[in-house]
Amino acid sequence: MSSQADSEAFVRPPGTGARSRRSGVAFELIGCAWNGHSLVGTDAAEVAAEDALVVRPGDDGTRWYRCLRCDAWLLLPEPTAPTRARPAARDEIVLPARGRPLKSRYVLRLIALTRAFNVLVLLLVLCGAIAVLVNQTALRDDLVANATTLQSVFGGQAIGQLESLLSGGAGPLWLVAAGLAVLIGLETAEGVGLWRATRWGEYLTFVMTTLLLVPEGLELTSSTSPGTIIGMVVNLAVVLYLLFSKRLFGLRGGLPAVQAERDHDISWAALARHLPDRATARA
Ligand SMILES: [Zn+2]
């Protein structure tokens, strides 16, 4: 029914055309699936032309709302009980993470989950040490067996070394338990710092993981089990990712470059840049 000219004349609703920016996994969709879309003006009685970047009037008591995270435009009814006259001003709105900073946040959280797993294993070993200290050797054996099972499933640090510690070959057991407690504290701090995407969390993880590469490298000289190799490859990848992608120690522009990357993807200018052309023409 439509000619080429007709289809050219048709202005698609904004956001429904082909994605004009990067291809691949849209991490914003994961964020929106988890947190819901980030909309502006759903509580406003009226919208004006200057709000067109994020909200526009529709037909028959509807409005188009643009998600500030994933750029989808949603057609929703106008609010029946608005609580403010106009949508919030730009300086009142905290823009959600998107683009490369959002992808980076997910990678950091993935690393944080591995730290949570390490803490779980170390806690089992610490409980084993405490069990020995209070002469509960059967309990120690159970705890170490559980820790070993976890390691065999997920790979990672060499539980065998920790197990030998509990056999009493590495000095007073209370000293081993104290060392384990410190390690658990550091791994917990790493996990929290990474989960919250803090700079100190990135540096702490870099230092801790680099230090861990030394015993893992030594272990490779005596054992080439899949768990050891996988653990070392993962830790090496984490170190390289933090060093180059997170630009630690001033590499690739350092913190200013990280901030510039963030401003490029999480800003009102970024929202204007990703507005579909035809929608701009229609506005
Ligand atoms: Zn969204």
Write the topology of this structure.
Layout (H helix, E strand, L loop, with lengths): L3 H6 L17 H9 L19 E3 L4 E5 L6 E5 L21 H35 L3 H18 L4 H11 L3 H23 L3 H24 L3 H20 L8 H12 L2 H6 L3 H6 L1
Antiparallel strand pairs: 1-2, 2-3
Helix pairs in contact: 3-4, 3-5, 3-6, 6-7, 7-8
Bound molecules: zinc ion.
Structure explained in plain terms:
- The protein has two domains: 4-98, no CATH class; 100-263, no CATH class.
- It has a three-stranded antiparallel beta sheet, with no helix packed on it.
- It is mainly alpha-helical and 283 residues long.
- The protein contains eleven helices and three strands; from the N terminus they run H-H-E-E-E-H-H-H-H-H-H-H-H-H.
- Bound molecules: zinc ion.
- Residues 32, 37, 67, 69-70, 72 line the site of zinc ion (ZN).
- The site of zinc ion has 6 residues, from loops.
Summarize the structure.
The protein has 283 residues and is mainly alpha-helical.
> Strand-and-helix sequence, N→C?
HHEEEHHHHHHHHH
Euclidean distance between termini CA atoms: 27 Å
Mean pLDDT across all amino acids: 81
Number of domains: 2
Bound molecules: zinc ion
For the secondary structure, the number of strands is 3
Q: What percent of residues adopt helix (DSSP H or I)?
A: 55-70%
Shape: elongated
Task: Identify low-pLDDT runs.
Answer: 1-15, 278-283
Strand order across the largest sheet: 1-2-3
Structural category: mainly alpha
Strand content: under 5%
Taking Cα atoms only, what radius of gyration do you get, to the nearest Å? 26 Å
Note the main sheet: 3 strands, antiparallel
| Count of helix runs | 11
